[in-house]
Amino acid sequence: MDLLYVRIIETLITILVLAAIRRFVSNIIRKRLQAADFGDNRAKLTINMFNVIYLALLVIILAGIWGLHGDQVIHFIGAALTVVGIGFFAQWSLLSNITSGLILFFNHPLKIGDYLSIVDKDFPLEGRVENITLFFIYIRDKEDRVFSISNTVMIQKTFRVLDHQDVANFLEEREKVLSRPKDTEETNTPDNQSSS
Predict the structure, then answer these.
(1) Theoretical Cys-Cys bridge with 159: which of 64, 118, 123, 195, CB 3.0 to 4.6 Å?
(2) Phi and psi of 130, rounded to 5°?
(3) Other Cβ atoms within 10 Å of 97 Cβ, number
(4) Closest Cα to residue 118, out of 196, 185, 170?
(5) pLDDT over 90 for what percent of the chain?
């Protein structure tokens, strides 16, 4: 059999095997998502992350099938990683945010819609988790303000997911805050000043 046909068959087998692995892992992610009642955004982000890994793996395997020698592949990967490393050197926290996002997705009890209390001496925060993205967690507080906290910081903070009674208290306080009229500042005019 001609070497070209062998390479084509190996390429097709590689693509089919990686597609089967991708489908299997995507199903596991979706089942985990349904069991933990996570939102669809988290599944899409995680599946996209794995798609990048599959693509890189496919490129490396195909390079080997089509005749690139090991040292050529290693030189190419080294050069590509160097360029990416230099590009992200000033923003290394992006990579740690992605890793933290995956940790939050797979090994954390936190999900969209949960009410939580962040225990912090300088900046305590209580609120509802609005969204969890690849880089940030968005939390809406009692005063209807949305805070974004990076995934790396969220992994390092101590927080607790509020139980039903705490959530009821939180919602009650939120209604009070949102229903009160906005404070208006009075200006000091001669009419408003009292004489002593």
Answers:
(1) 118
(2) -85, -40
(3) 21
(4) 170
(5) 11
